Structures are given as structure tokens and as C-alpha cells.
Amino acid sequence: MQVKGIVKLFLVLLVVVVLLQYLYILPTRKVEKNAEKYAEKLAAKAPEGTDVYEFKKEVVSKYLDSMSSEVIFRIPLFAKYTYDDLKKSQLALGLDLKGGMSVILQVNLKDFLLTLSGNSQDATFHKALDNAEKAMANSQDDYITLFYQEWKKIAGDKKLAKIFVRNQAVRDAGNLNYNSTDDEVLAFLKKKGDETIKLTFNMLKQRIDKLGVVQPNVSLDENRNLILVEL
Hints:
Shape: elongated
Structural class: mainly alpha
Oligomer: single chain
Strand content: 5-15%
Radius of gyration: 26 Å
Number of helices: 9
Distance between the termini: 27 Å
Strand order of the largest sheet: 3-5-4
Number of strands: 5
């Protein structure tokens, strides 16, 4: 059920990005197509010997510059956007007019570990989770590895098994007990984490395929728990 919830969240985020694409790309693309048509029209009347490519390039540039402050998109009673406004927002979001769109999604293994722990309230456990989340920004390691590193820094003599084996499902699935070593618990967490990531990836890929998108590319970076979606 948790994986299905993650997939649904990813799909909602994907829909939001698609809507943003319509908001930022379509109006600007219309202006740019008009610029290209205008350049083609003038190029047909250009003197013989004119470098047509450079001529059209210059015309398009001047046309777009003249449109920079023109309102090209309105949301009634809410906002209006100039060509320049939408272009800047589009670039800020990393949307590519001609190359489609891409979204990078990260599987949230913090909540996954919380669930495996039976929602443990152990302060050291929560601090290690939070520290690992912060470390993700500057590391190429996966979340569970970072969590384990942070745990070892602050746990002292406390055993990781005590956090997770209170969950009967963990004891049954991992053959763990209160005497299990931290390394044994880590191996179990990484195994279950990898399974969850792959299951999430496969379910997301199946859902996207059902949308009928032409040649979608959905790839998995297992090292960082990242899913790349390119449409």
C-alpha cells in the first residue's frame, strides 16, 4: 500500500509538471513560431546574395525582442504574463521547448525506515534520519547508507536491532532478533529498500506506459534512489 501511495504521489507531481509545461511553453512557442513565419516571409523578399540563415536568425531575434513586454497569456482574474515572464519561468524550471520534458523523482526512504521501525520515537533514530536527509544534498551515496553512517556517529553503544526488531514483520522477514549486529540489520534494510525502490520504479513505469505517452524514458539510478522520467 505504501508503494502505491508513492506511485500516486509521483503521478500527481508529473501531472503538475505537465500543467506547468502548458503554462510556460505553449504561449511562448506560439510567439516563436510566429517569429519564424515572419522571418520566412521577409527572407523570401531579401536581396539576392543574402545569407538567408543569418538574415532569418536576426529577424527572429528582433521579433522576439519586440514581444518581450507583450502580454501573451492571461489567467482571468488572477494574473497575466508577458513573453519575457514566461520565458524566464520556463528556464527556471528547466523546461526544454524542443526536447520535451524531464522530471527527477526521489523515493522517500526516510518514511520507509520509519514504517519498518514501527514508527519508533527513539530520539537518536530520528536524528540519524534527519542528518541522513541533509547529507543527501552533498553525497552520491544512497539514503540507507547515509542513515547508517549517521547512526554510527551518534548511537554510541545503542544497537540498531532494538529500533527495528520490535516490528514483528521485520523479525519474520529478516531473521533478526535483539542480538543481531548493526551490519546484519543494515544488510536487511538495504535489501528491503532496494526491493521497494524497484517495485516503485516498475509500478510507475507501468502507469506511465498506460498513459500512452510516445517513447517515454523511465530510468532508475539505484545508487541515489532516483527515478528519471523523460517525455
